[in-house]
Amino acid sequence: MEISPDSIIIYAREPIVLNATLLFTWLTMGLLVGVSAWVTRQLSVRPRLPAWQNLLEMIVEGIYNQIRDITQQDPEPYLSFVGTLFLFIVTSNLLTVVPGYHAPTGSLSTTAALALCVFVAVPIFGIRQQGLWHYLKSYLEPTPIMLPFQIIGEFSRTLALAMRLFGNIMSGNLLAAILLSLVPLFVPVVMHILGLVFGVIQAYVFSVLALVYIASASSVQQHNHHVSTQENNYE
């Protein structure tokens, strides 16, 4: 029983080692890029829109509205980054219905990479919205004594993001594998369906937490209380 796709070696010949995490990460990214290129190739403004364009607009509008409702800010600056995070994670989790596919989000290396993307994005968005001085000054508020705690908080929430997603996806896959070996067919099927739903929820929670961290850095003075409340709700 493989707990992590890191342990599944697809190809190994020094100095190249290709495991399932790398393979399915690139396949997932390639699928998203390919579908995006195909869907946006012939966009229409006619009243009768193709079904694929309706689906695309529903997804984008849904993400747009969620960002606006959570941050109470203009969603445009956050849409591309947060939307990409959500689509990658949810696609990785949903593709587990394909036989032989191993979700890269079941690997700690993948979830750590996603969390590091958020870690880097927080100061980038913060500096872009507030300016370098005001962003750095926020680490000293309400008192300079808080500086080490602010820095520790940045690293701890990054670690929590990575571990939360990895732990939830890995434990779900492990539970489904155990049930498949112990009970008849129908119970694991139900668990697998629940696992897909759970995978969508985990993608949503990860994206919302990332959005909360970025939005708090972008507008500390105006939205600190609102963002803290949202973070507590999703923790």
Brief account:
The chain is mainly α and 235 residues long. The protein has helices at residues 20-39, 51-71, 76-94, 108-130, 132-137, 147-182, 186-218, 220-234, and strands at 9-13, 16-19.
Your description of this structure?
The chain has one domain (about 5-40, about 50-235). The protein has eight helices and two strands, in the order E-E-H-H-H-H-H-H-H-H. It is about 75% helix and about 5% strand. A hairpin with a 2-residue loop joins strand 1 and strand 2 (about 15-20). A two-stranded antiparallel sheet has the order 1-2. Helix 3 runs antiparallel to helix 7 and helix 4 (about 110-130) runs parallel beside helix 7 (about 185-220). It is mainly alpha-helical and about 240 residues long.
